[in-house]
Amino acid sequence: MAVMGERVFEDRRDAGRVLAGFLEHYRDRPDVVVLGLPRGGVPVAYEIAVALGAPLDVFVVRKLGVPGHEELAMGAIAGGGVVVLNEDIVRGAGVWPDTLREVTADERKELVRRERAYREGRPPPDLMGRTVVVVDDGLATGATMRAAVAALRRHEPAGIVVAVPTASEQAVRELSALADQVVCASTPPLFTAVGFSYRDFEQTTDEEVRDLLRAAAARRVRA
């Protein structure tokens, strides 16, 4: 489900609260787990997890940026050795195979670093048979989310729900063919960048990610 038209959110937390309204039918279901893609997807995912009464965790995915134009995704990697490439961008940017291997190796190191930094010794959740709501702050090319869905399939969940506040129509179409459901609150007709859907789009820090994961865990213990 994607809502046609443009909407501007105050910040990621506001976007998460809005998006949670489209996911009400998952509230208080014991099989549901919410996963945020660090870093920007975690504040959005936190609000969704709170609204649904579901546990929150992270799923680390790294974009493979074109050298010199790092914001342009030529692909993405996720845990378990999953690599998703946008072949059109790789060819169009003239990226050599050696360069692609170097970028992938560098991003894999960062993926491992973030896994350790965010989990703080906690094991990843068991996703087999669960309904996974995987969240980011928006989709431009959708490469990172495609890698996430491909990697999550290896865990044999009952279903994968992609939830994002904003996305291009093309990204929604492509993800709809891969995920069991795509929920998007805003699809601007002339999508140029995720940040244009937010009034405050400051970069999320590692410490903020850790704080939100701790806060979500504390809420679950109290509940």
CATH topology of the domain at 2-60 and 126-222: Rossmann fold
Give the name of the CATH architecture of the domain at 2-60 and 126-222.
3-Layer(aba) Sandwich
Q: Structural class, please?
A: alpha/beta
Span between termini: 31 Å
> What characteristic shape results from the CA principal axes?
globular
Radius of gyration: 16 Å
Helix content: 25-40%
Count of distinct strands = 9
| CATH first level of the domain at 2-60 and 126-222 | Alpha Beta
**Sheet with most strands: strand arrangement:** 1-9-8-7-2-3
The biggest sheet amounts to: 6 strands, parallel
Averaged pLDDT: 91
User: Could you name the ranges where pLDDT drops below 50 across 5 or more consecutive residues?
Assistant: none
SSE order: EHEHEEEEHHEHEHEH
Number of helices: 7
Strand content: 15-25%
Can you tell me about this structure?
By secondary structure, the protein is an alpha/beta fold. The chain has a domain at 2-60 and 126-222: Rossmann fold (3-Layer(aba) Sandwich), CATH 3.40.50.2020. The chain is built from 7 helices and 9 strands, in the order βαβαββββααβαβαβα. The strands form 2 sheets. It has a 6-stranded parallel beta sheet, sandwiched between helices. Strands 4-5-6 form a 3-stranded antiparallel beta sheet. Helix 2 links the parallel strand 2 and strand 3 (56-58). The longest helix is centred in the middle third of the chain and has 23 residues, at 97-119.
